[in-house]
Design a protein that fits this description.
The chain is an alpha+beta fold and 113 residues long. The protein is built from 4 helices and 6 strands; from the N terminus they run αββββαββαα. It has helices spanning 5-14, 52-59, 84-87, 90-108, and strands at residues 20-25, 28-33, 36-42, 45-49, 65-66, 79-81. Strands 1-2-3-4-6-5 form a 6-stranded antiparallel β-sheet.
Length: 113
């Protein structure tokens, strides 16, 4: 399965402030800010990598669930498949994208142990 151009355009517009780039992987598209991937597009789905607190909140949304690049694969750690209701609501979607990209950028600034 591949990503859908409509979702790619939506994601790139929403995350423009984070100086993003995209890279094909696992039959989908990874979206990066700096060197950190924070979103993954597959089919009509967008998965966002979230902090533990935001992940718990997102997983409680109706229609949300673990993101799997392939139906038979393990879920991607810390990623949630965003529900259609969020994807189709610009303000809600922007809020979640900002949370996700900000979380990824915070990981870039942490010292490595």
């Amino acid at each position: 399965m591949v990503y859908r151009p409509l979702r790619y355009e939506q994601m790139m517009r929403a995350s423009d402030a984070f100086d993003v780039r995209a890279r094909r992987m696992f039959g989908g598209m990874g979206i990066y800010t700096g060197e950190k991937m924070f979103a993954f597009l597959i089919g009509d789905d967008i998965g966002l990598k979230l902090s533990p607190e935001d992940l718990a909140e997102a997983m409680s949304l109706p229609g949300a669930g673990p993101l799997r690049p392939d139906p038979n694969s393990e879920p991607m750690k810390d990623y949630v498949k965003m529900p259609r209701e969020v994807l189709d609501n610009y303000e809600q979607f922007m809020d979640w994208v900002v949370r996700s990209a900000s979380y990824a950028r915070s990981k870039m600034q942490q010292p490595k142990n």
